[in-house]
Amino acid sequence: MREELLERIRSLGLPYAEEVADFCSAVIRAFEPWCIIIHGSVARGDYVLGRSDVDVLVISDRFEDMDVRDRISELLPYGAGRVVFFEALGFTREEALRMLEGLNLLMLDALHHGKVIYDRGFYGQLKAKFERLVAERGLVRIRKGWMATR
After folding, report:
1. Which residue in 78, 32, 81 sits closest to 56, CA to CA?
2. CA 61/CA 74 separation, integer angstroms
3. 3-state DSSP assignment of residue 122
4. Predicted TM-score (pTM) of this structure
5. Cβ atoms 56, 67 nearer than 8 A
6. What does the buried/exposed string (b/e) look like for 92-124 if buried means 16 or more CB atoms within 10 Å of the residue's CB?
């Protein structure tokens, strides 16, 4: 699994490929996620080596009935002791869809410029909903967020 992830990460041109592959491999074993998305400066390409963290969304049903702080605490050890800091947030599939429907900026940005590292079939559903919302509501990315033109 790690080698497949590493190949995918390198094909996307992301920095910290070895670290991201190790982190994602461990998270996949522990949480059986539906998808893992790298977003933020690393995904956009405007990161600063040695200063930027790696922002990660982990979509897994294992987060059901778990407090958001507990999710962060559960994910934190998988990034410990690495060359780069991983800021990982965990959501269930239902939460991700609800966040998107509510035009949550984090979810909109992650789907706009995020890089899918791992997917078991949920990302397509999420991306299709994002594209529908963009079309229906005339969503436009602006400097510090999103604007609905309809």
Report:
1. 78
2. 14
3. coil
4. 0.95
5. no
6. bbebbbebbeeebeebbbbbebbbbbbbeebbe
Burial of 22 (0-12, 13-18, 19+ CB in 10 A): middle
Domain ranges (residues) in the chain: 2-148
Determine whether domain 2-148 maps to CATH 1.20.58.2190.
no
- Banded pLDDT at 144 (limits 50, 70, 90): confident
Residue type, 27: V
User: Residues 119-148: what's their mean pLDDT?
Assistant: 96
pLDDT at residue 123, rounded to an integer: 97
Q: Residue 37: which of 86, 104, 85 has the closest Cα? A: 86
Alpha-helical segments (H) within the chain? 2-11, 17-31, 41-44, 68-75, 93-101, 105-113, 123-137
Helices (H), 13-62: 17-31, 41-44
